[in-house]
Amino acid sequence: xxxxxxxxxxxxxxxxxxxxxxxxxxxxxxxxxxxxxxxxxxxxxxxxxxxxxxxxxxxxxxxxxxxxxxxxxxxxxxxxxxxxxxxxxxxxxxxxxxxxxxxxxxxxxxxxxxxxxxxxxxxxxxxxxxxxxxxxxxx
Length: 139
Hints:
The two termini are 28 Å apart. The protein has 139 residues and is α+β, with helices and mostly antiparallel strands. Helix content is 39%, strand content 24%. It has one domain (3-134). The protein is globular and about 40 Å long.
């Protein structure tokens, strides 16, 4: 399903109240993070990391409705990975201490922001990065 068709389906009264398919898939990946971490011999992320990822995932999806990958990292982080194509991506790392790291790659240009808490996220930095995923590359 293309982003345009998917966005149109979001406003269809027949699907009102339903969880969008791409969001549901990402939420299922989040539900499987602990098992995936154990399978890879990673420490399981903390409940705080899971709480933050559960809260941020739908907010990020509303800002940028597209397929989102969710997976564990060896440092007890949960990554919300938002690919944009054209060498672009935004990654939000929910850390087990309650903080977060946002890594942005826009066509080889890298930026990052570190947060001691996720209470104010998604902030302007993340919103701007997600908007940049929509832009067509120049050159």
